[in-house]
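Aim 2 progress update. The chain analyzed this quarter is reproduced below.
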Amino acid sequence: MCNLYRMTKNPDEVARWFGADNAAQGSNFGAEVYPGYPGLVVAEGAVRQMAWGFPLALKGKHGQPLKPKPVNNAREDKLSGPFWRDSFVHRRCLIPVVAWAEAEGAKGAKTRTWYGLPHHELFAVAGLWRPTAEWGDAYTMVMVDSCPDMAEVHDRMPTILHRESWDRWLHGSPEEAFALCRPWDDTLAVDRTNQPWGGWK
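Predicted structure tokens:
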């Protein structure tokens, strides 16, 4: 599952890339996006800032409420379940991504391996969004089985959408959108680094 991705373009650049309005003026997000932190999405015809992850209510041993957990990935085989269904049917979005990272290596010494699309400065990942009482509008990535270029590192990957599929993901029927939830059918650019995986928490 994806727990870190890179987004180095500003809202104006994203708006031009996707042909969307810029509703994210004055937004504040990092070049590396982590669960629970703000990122950009394209939803309802505009680039908007939202929190990455749907809040999951948690309780302590004695029933006391705890800080919600951001659920930042939605498996495609769970989209018909109660946690995701309404957003999948009514609120799909595009998530602009430059690259995403997975942890690779031995336990305790894992490093960041970055994946992107060759010769692409930016691409779109399928997402869902919804309003929340805890964090305002929030979004999540839709995950599918991995393609061969990353299957040895992780068995799931983000749903990358071809440009001609963007409108179908956003506005098609649930059946049409679900048909787009499949592993990437082309090569990936792979960048194995020595950068430690953790360190941001």
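The radius of gyration is 16 Å. Residues 5-196 form a domain with the hypothetical protein yedk fold fold (CATH 3.90.1680.10). These observations will guide the mutagenesis experiments scheduled for the next reporting period.
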